[in-house]
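Dear colleagues,

As part of the handover before I leave the project, I'm documenting each prediction I ran so the next person doesn't have to rerun anything. This entry is a single chain, and its sequence is reproduced below.
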Amino acid sequence: CCWFDWKKIMDKEHVKGAADKAKGAMKDAAGKMMDDKKLQAEGKMDKAKGEARQALGDAKDAVRHANDR
């Protein structure tokens, strides 16, 4: 039907990873501004979680592309 396949561009792991990284960056910045070490730590954990999700998405993409060949 469509010439553009969103699944090939970005899967849910990439989307969730980007969201986690953005949320983490906001928490980290807010924690720095308010000198809240707990909030900063939560932000760093969210950013790490986002990076892990994006790596999982990259791995899924690699498998998908290998199967397409």
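Residues 29 and 41 are 11 Å apart (CA to CA). The first helix runs from residue 6 to 9.

All the best with the project,
I.
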